[in-house]
Amino acid sequence: MHKYFTSIAIACLFSATAIAQTPQAPATNTQPIAKSRVLQVDSAVVTKHKVTIKGQVIPYTATAGCMPIWDNDGRPIAGVFYTYYERDDVTDRANRPLVISFNGGPGTPSVWMEIGYTGPRVLNVDSEGYPVQPYGIGENKNSILDVADIVYVDPVNTGYSRPVDKGTPGTKFFGVNADIKYLAEWINTFVTRKDRWASPKFLIGESYGTTRVSGLALELQNSQWMYLNGVVLVSPTDLGIQRSGPVSAALKLPYFAATAWYHGALSPELQKKELTDFLPEVEDFTINQLIPALSRGGFLDDAQKKDIAAKMSKYSGLSEKVILDNNLDVSYDLYWKELLRDKGFTIGRLDSRYKGIDRQTSGSSPDYNAELTAWLQSFTPAINIYLRNELNYKTDLKYNMFGDVWPWDNANDQTGENLRQAIAQNPYLHLLIQSGYYDGACDYFNAKYSLWQLDPSGRLKDRLKWEGYKSGHMIYLRKEELAIASENLRKFIQESIPKPGQAAKY
Asked: What pLDDT, on the 0 to 100 scale, is given for residue 378?
């Protein structure tokens, strides 16, 4: 018997469907999902719900399930878990937008944006995004489900997604281009099964998910013949766009300045300014003075070097000595350790509003990521409660908040160029970038730089947009920013759909 047709693989192929009228009273599965750690490659549970968005009651159907990834001979090699939300009171599905959502890692599922940002349910945190108990979820009045249907996709080894056969090489899934290729195939299957070929389509990705969706934009066009209306990058990576030496060293400073402003580490003159009024001054210094100075390296005049260090100190909250000791190039790690060292705290990598406590105050980097432990504390119980109790998807598989996707092949990352080419080829396609000022992993000024470098011709810039938020990597965890970002996303979707009869042409 062929290795793909072992008893375990056959068990994986049984499907399960159920319909429940409310999340409080789900119906019994007509064909229950097995309570075991065997992946069900092709399965679905359907439930009915309602959510109030902007004062309007939105009825919707939620589908939680797995769809297969096939090899070239049509045999399933993995199951990709997804959750799909469809508004029920829509009669014209052909004009109803579909948003396809990914997160990053690259080994994390789509939980973060599903119950943190765009989905109809949102996790229970305080107004700044910190964990509170009891853990759980509630209604998301900011969800974009009023204007678009949404599917959240968990790549292989994240969430409940798994390979069918442990013998399948990881190279099939775990790399920049392998990831893009198999996910494009999966999207084709999903769109076909759900009859969404006519719908305007959008990709949204966060963190490494921005690498995914940037590559998918072109892969879908070239290999699946599927054309998009919009791509949204939330806290984007560098997308393979080169920056090194003086440019890489300098681009960190505006993020340092935003962080220092948040923690009150600047002079009274700068602290009294609004953040968004203050940062352009730092950005101008970075582009017009710091990059040229760093370009001179060790031959920079001593007096000029001291002057540059003084200005960097003014904007970053660090001492001139620390800056000079590091030759005007302070690492992110050192900044997270140094800024509040005298107060006994480190600051978070993904969100520098968060503070941590290290074993000792000396050292050049924090012991741990203060923000990530807080996020895992609130998101992990919430998604497990939600999937089992409201969406009625019951399995003994562990939901991987971080899955094993290593080694990950980062070679030949051309995703920024892929995105540019997709936009150039498709006059309907628009781009929105959303960044948090306090994000030190995918910092806001590097995101701006990527936007500037994405299209050297400048002829596509009327379809490229950047937005900044007073939050970190997960811009939506501050409730004030969640409302603003959701509304901006809603407008982007609506404005990226052409008027009736408007042709895709230059």
From this structure: 98
